[in-house]
Amino acid sequence: MLRAIAPLAPLVAALMVVVLLFEPPALRPAERIPTLRALMARPTAGLNRDEVQNAIRAGYAAQPATYRLRRVTSTASAGSTELAGTVYTPFLRIAWASHAAAQSGQRLTATDIPGWLSTPVIYVALRSPVDTLARSFERPAVTILPAGEPTCCDEPQPTLVRPIWVADDATPIARFGAEVPFEDLGLVVGLPARALHAGIDIVAFYRLAGPDGRRSIEMRGRITADDLLAWK
């Protein structure tokens, strides 16, 4: 019988690899988020020549807009305008670089744009989950979740997309000339552009142990469909 099925072994092995690539194993059901398939379906392409030129012109003409990541909490009012963070798309990064050049009397051209400015990575600056003066020196954790999904208290923390990099100061946004958006800046995160979807929360958080068990202290921002229509 083993001889009969031996020729099928390579095919079975290949199928197993495909399954693992598209459905990674989870230690427990809470770690498996089906939305991952939707977010991983197709990477977002970089900017084309016209988009780069438009970003340069926009930044030369005026200070770039702020792409606001609205804060959501369990007690937030429906019309709350408090921010959890700011978002920097490739278009906005180039616009900021162009604006910074204009402020110093120069004019940026497409040939001046380094690859990291236009690559399909989204920078997100998040405020600290707690008061800057009172917070721990430890950097907060960050996760990307379906809207309203809790951060307490699975280990490891489920996430739709893992950050490409995380910085605990404003250096990444200072590189392209943007102003520091918050006094209580907690971290700056680089995310694949495919992570920009309506109905997801980008969360910086600390986990604390207390008399009633573990809990999370969060700074949670939500991306909406209206945001995606307004952002370039």
Features:
232 residues, alpha+beta, eight-stranded antiparallel sheet, 8 strands, 27% helix
Describe the fold and architecture.
The model is unreliable at 1-6 and 8-45 (pLDDT under 50). Helices cover 27% and strands 25% of the residues. The protein has one domain (33-230). The chain is built from 8 helices and 8 strands; from the N terminus they run ααααββααβββαβββα.
Describe the structure concisely for a colleague:
With 232 residues, the chain is α+β, with helices and mostly antiparallel strands. The protein contains 8 helices and 8 strands.
- Estimated radius of gyration: 21 Å
What share of residues is helical?
25-40%
Distance between the termini: 60 Å
Which class best fits the helix and strand makeup? alpha+beta
Low-confidence stretches: 1-6, 8-45
> How big a fraction of the residues is strand?
15-25%
For the sheet with most strands, the description reads:
8 strands, antiparallel
* Overall 3D form: elongated
Strand order of the largest sheet: 4-7-8-1-2-3-6-5
Determine the mean pLDDT.
79
Tally of distinct domains: 1
**Tally of extended strands?**
8
Helical segment count: 8
Order of helices and strands: HHHHEEHHEEEHEEEH
